[in-house]
Amino acid sequence: MSDSSWSWAAELTSRFLKKPARLQHLMECLPDTMDPGTRRRCQFLLYGIVRHWAFLEAGLDEWVKKRPRVGLRAALLVASFEIMSDPVKGPQIVDHAVRNIGKKYSKSERGLANAVLRKVSARMSERLLVEPTDAAGIAMRYSHPLWLIERWEQQFGLEGALQMAEWNQREPELYALSLKEDVPVAIGETSQWERYSNLTKEAWPAVQEQLDAASIYIQNPGARLAPEMLAKFFVDGRVLDLCAAPGGKSIYLDKFLGEAASEIVALDLPGSRLARLKSNVAQFGSSRIRVVASDVFNLDLESIGSFEAVFLDAPCSNTGVMQRKPDVKWRLKREDSKELAGLQERMLEKASSFVCEKGVLLYSTCSIDGDENEGAIDRFLSSSTGQAFERLESSTSLPWESGHDGSGVCAMRRR
C-alpha cells in the first residue's frame, strides 16, 4: 500500500469533513503526476470513508471523550475504513496508520491514535454483525441520515428502506453500452441487459482501448430506461434533450433512434459540464446531435422551434444513484425536496412549450422519491398547461429490485 495514497486520502477526507463536497471535485485536487494505481487506491479509500461515514465515526466516538482536530480525525477514519474492509489485517493496518500519523502529529496524538485504533480493530467484526431492527439502527449501521431512512420507510416500508440502504453501501459495478449496432461489447462479462457489458473485473487499459475506438460508452444500465420509453412512442422528427450533459442519453438516442431522428438538440448550461457534453458527443455521437449552450428558461420557441419529442432529465435529489455518489446523502437536506419540486414543475412547464402537436414529452429523474416522480407528473397534468397532455406510461425503478441505478420516467403526449 502506498503511503502517498494513504496521505492523500486523509487530506481529501479532511476537506470533506470541513465541508461535504462532491467527491469527483475532491478527486480533481490530486496531482496530475500521480500514477493510476495510487489514484485508484486513494479513490477507493475516500469513497469508502464517505459511504460508511456515520458507522466509522460511531466506532471512533466509543473511545474518545472529545473528537480530535479535523486532520487527525480524518486519518483515523482512513484507518478505520481499512480495518472495516479487512478486519483480519487490523493489527498491520493499525501499525501502518500510526506510523503515518506519527510523521505529522505530536507524540501524544500518535499515542491516542494507537490506543483508539487498536480498540476499533478489536470491536470491528462484532459491530459488522449487528442487524438493525428500526430506522435509527439502519441509519447507523448503513451510514445514512436518519430523516432519509424515515422518508424511505414511509414510501417503501422498513424492509424497503433497509434494502435501499444496503444497496447504497455496495461497491458499484462498472457497465458499458455497446455503440455498434448488433455488436456486443468485446470485453467484460455479459450482463442481463441487452447491449450492456459488466466491466468491473476488466483491466482499465482494455477498457480505454474500446473507449478510444468509440465502440463503447461507460453508462449504468439504469440510464437506458428513459430513452427506451421515449423511443417506444417516437415516430420521427426532431428531439430536444434538455439538461443533456454529460451526453449519455443523447448518444443512446442517436444510436438507437437512427435516421428516425432528423436532429437531436442537446442543451445544457455553459460551463464544465457543457465541455464534457461536447467532448462526448464529438467522440461517440453523430452529426445528428447539435450541442446548444443555454439555460432552458432563456430558450424561446422562435429561436429553436418545436420538436416531435422533448426529453427533460430534470435536476433531482439523486437518491437513485447514491451507490455511485455516496456524498449525495450527506449533502442532501430534508428541506431540499420543496425547492426541487418547484424547480421540476417550472422546468416541466417550460419544456412542454417546445412540444409540437401530438409530440411526446418525456420526463425523467435519477431519484426514487415519489414526490419527484409520480407527484411531479400529477401536479403538472393537473395544471392549466399540463391539461394539454395525456399520460402514456410511467415507471419507477428501485435499485434493490432492478439491480441498477434507480430512476423515475414518464411519457406524455400533447393532445
Could you list some keywords that capture this structure?
single chain; 415 residues; alpha/beta; N-utilizing Substance Protein B Homolog, Chain A; 4 domains; seven-stranded mixed β-sheet; four-stranded antiparallel β-sheet; globular
Descriptive notes:
The structure is a single chain. With 415 residues, the chain is an alpha/beta fold. It has 18 helices and eleven strands. The chain is globular. The model has no long low-confidence stretch (mean pLDDT 95).
Give a summary of the structure in a few sentences:
The protein has 415 residues and is α/β, with parallel strands linked by helices.
Helix/strand class: alpha/beta
CATH architecture of the largest domain: 3-Layer(aba) Sandwich
The value of Rg in angstroms is 23 Å
**Could you estimate the helical fraction of the residues in percent?**
40-55%
Mean pLDDT comes to 95
Using the coordinates shown, work out and report the CATH topology of the largest domain.
Rossmann fold
Pattern of helices and strands: HHHHHHHHHEEEHEHEHEHEHEHHEHEHE
Number of domains: 4
Q: What is the CATH homology-level superfamily of the largest domain?
A: Vaccinia Virus protein VP39
Tally the helices: 18
Report the portion of residues in β strands.
15-25%
Low-confidence stretches: none
Shape: globular
Going across the major beta sheet, what is the strand order?
Answer: 7-6-5-8-9-11-10
User: Separation of termini?
Assistant: 62 Å
